Amino acid sequence: MSFENADFREEVLDIENPFDVKFVSKFLKKLDFDYTPEDVDYTMVLYTLNDEIIGTGSYQNHVLKYVAVAPDYRSSAAFSQIVTHLMDKLLTRYKNIFVYTLPRNTKVFEGLGFTEIATAPPLFSVLEFGYENIKTYQQYLRKQKQDVSTGPVSAIVVNCNPFTNGHKYLIEKAAQESRILYLFVVEEDRSSFPFEVRWELIKKGIAHLQNVFMLKGGDYVVSGTIFPSYFLKNENPGMIAEKQAELDIRTFIKYIVPVLGITRRYVGTENYDATTLAYNNAMKTLLPRAGVKLIEINRKKAATTTGETSVISASKVRQAIKDDRLSEIEEFLPESTRNYLKSNESAWIKAKIKSSNTRH
């Protein structure tokens, strides 16, 4: 399918066609992009009227990706034509659009109506456009805000894939030490346990804690829309993880902390997962500057039926499900999760975990 204007011709790429994919990959390779068709839902290509490829753009869900224009055409209308084409497609389905770019490119997107949310120089800037935006999310938070005159106002961010006794311990500890605890649940469904299930298991598991208030993370709390990396082919993975975390935390500090009056953020200690460790280290640097105290709690341990004592983790629970060893780690699970995993409702999730080769 193709479309024409007076200067350039647009064509929709068949991402199922290996020849088309190779063609675009070759173009993007010269511009330091590694095109991965599995990471996009849609790709368009821009040509001159002489059929010379001069640019391309893609999206996955409501995130723009691989927007690139050949150097000789960067002063033309090619870039704006690509972005406008993608926006027109997405705004029929989504209320907002995100894009990630190098900080030096933010002005170009701002010229097309995008608004910068946060920057983690020198690698990342995240911008958005749409009918709903970060201000809409702040309105949601204001409606959930609790009146507090004294005592610490704390926050925890959890995914809970699934909810474990480790999560429960951290939440109970923070609740005991706080006047109010806001519990942000990652809303994006990239986990084995979908958001609705995770939310219900947590809700049942902390029903006894009267000062804990659960909040949806939306697109702005540990979300894939705030964790870009696809366009940084030549960067060190450690630097990418660090800057991803910084982008998320700067968003938290700028838009969430002042609305809810948060003074503390609780996390579990992390010695193994490199991404989580980078995230915790970034919080240690950035949160105190914003007047938020970071409190690390040693992760809870539990014994297995084999006699081994180890740190509780959701990944160990998922591995036990995969290996049909769930009975060995029942001490890892609060009642809400244990009952769910024993019910027929969880059969499809357990089947998905067993057939999956990913860590999620």
From TrEMBL:
Highest taxon of source: Bacteria
Protein's job: Acetylation of prosthetic group (2-(5''-phosphoribosyl)-3'-dephosphocoenzyme-A) of the gamma subunit of citrate lyase.
SUPFAM superfamilies noted in UniProt: Acyl-CoA N-acyltransferases (Nat), Nucleotidylyl transferase
Catalysed reaction, written as an equation: holo-[citrate lyase ACP] + acetate + ATP = acetyl-[citrate lyase ACP] + AMP + diphosphate
Keyword terms: ATP-binding, Ligase, Lyase, Nucleotide-binding
Statement: the UniProt record of this protein carries the keyword Aminoacyl-tRNA synthetase: no
A GO term, aspect molecular function: lyase activity
Pfam families: Citrate_ly_lig (PF08218)
Protein name, UniProt field: [Citrate [pro-3S]-lyase] ligase
Start and end residues of each N-acetyltransferase domain: 1-138
Coiled coil region boundaries: none
EC nos: 6.2.1.22
